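Researcher: Good morning. I'm working through a list of sequences from a screen, and I'd like to move beyond sequence-only analysis. For each chain I'm collecting a predicted structure so we can compare shapes side by side. This is the next one on the list. No need for commentary yet; just the structure.
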Amino acid sequence: MKVVSSIVLLWALLLTGATLCVAQSGEAPPASPEAPVQPLPFSHKKHAGDMKLPCTFCHVKPDPGVQMTLPGTAKCMRCHATMGTDKPGVQKLTEFVKSGTPIPWVQVYSVPGFVYWSHDVHLTAKVECASCHGDVVKMDTIAKVTNVTTMGGCVGCHKQREGPTGCMTCHEVNSAHLLMSPLPKKLRRIIHYADGI
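Model: Good morning. Structure tokens for this chain:
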């Protein structure tokens, strides 16, 4: 009886999640256009827009390709050792270089720990960076302008592009992400137990 109750509860939770997923897919709340305060005044408009630097010039995707990285100070100094040295932002960049301290950029987009997400999968599917991050070539300061990090944003995009929308696409039941997530302990045990059935 206990096993049956656990299975029923698991299916109820999955169906509730699927219902929320469908309900949010077209009606996700708009993203906040307010940009976080960053440690340096970096302009994507100038670098990616005016200078036409591709996203991958600064943001590399090391194996296994789950995350894109932010450039180290050495990358910035390739140009700024001689360009813009009189500007306060470049002078502050130089201070980071001299101290050996990485630039403490404030992350703008992130997904919860219980969600599996990979840049590699999306780039392989030919999803343009602007689809998720907005038209950064027109932004001096990066702000969260899409709802891409919400369940509704993801599902809406997957439906539009005819991508997979099943729960396991992003929520792997047996993944460490889900089992270690801030879900109630009892629910984590049920999910873990049901996965072994």
